[in-house]
Amino acid sequence: MKGKLISTIMLLTLALGVSVALAQVSVGVKKGDWIEYQATFQGTPPPGHNVEWARTEVTDVQGPIIHLNITDGLSNGTVLQEDVVLNLETGHLGDDFIIPANLSVGDTFLDYYHGSLTIIGVEDGTYGGAVRTVVLASTALTTYYWDRATGFLVKGVTNAGDYNMSSIVHATNMWQAQPAGLDTTTLYAVVIAVALVVALVVVFVVWRRNK
Fold it and tell me: Do the beta carbons of residue 35 and residue 168 sit within 8 Å?
């Protein structure tokens, strides 16, 4: 009887450990991170959704709980501001502002309003002036794009029938924008070419002096 009790306790402990492990999520943001969006819409969006620009700033991070300050600029000139608390473990993500970081195709995460969402794609694109790897998921009306490394929303496209809306990151302090028209590969090539030219000039000057 005592042996069965010990076995039961061990199984319960193991099950609890597995549950805790499954509940853990990767948080990719920190206090002070911010992101700004530009938005466009067509048709007649619901009140408060006629957004033309927005800014989201992380004001605190405590484990899976993330505090945000969100500012929305509406098409009529009104500016709205609110504080939002997210919980990546319970799926309270607001309008999917931030999800767990470093997800891959087939991975799932909990959304309080939509249930379990599955990552359906991973791709590279230019967001906030830099090439970033993003992950995609869709609900009935909206396709979301999140920066994979941070989990921050970088793009959203909504098709609701009576209105369409699109928002995309304009600026952020989480990564550096690259010089316009110059990608990383081109930049490296230019640096190497300049270094080679300088080296050839130095060799030529030394050769002339010795001669």
Answer: no
